[in-house]
Amino acid sequence: MPYQYKRFLLWSNGGEGKLGDNYIYIWAIEDIVAYNNDYGIHKYLQKEYLAFGMDGDIGYIFHLPNNSIYRVDLGDLDIASIKYIAPSFDDFLGKAIYLNFDKPQNIVDNSSTI
Fold it and tell me: Tens of pLDDT along 10-23?
């Protein structure tokens, strides 16, 4: 797990609320394994991805080799449909304040970042 995310969990053990135009639910440490299993993250995506939160039916996932963050539709887990958001957890939180993640212009195509 990325250091910045571990630090956040030690401070608050998850949380939820509005950040800018986004409503983000960051799962508590004791829920991460269950949610990843329930949504089939490792079944439909690669094992190098770990979901850590959501906004409605959109999941937020770490790409563990480089700790970057992507979003994916939890009802349609397809590696080709994930979208890059930020290079780190801290950057993800910062971007959430200023950018609406539902607007396509604020999300980068995943093919250039994986």
Answer: 999 999 999 988 89
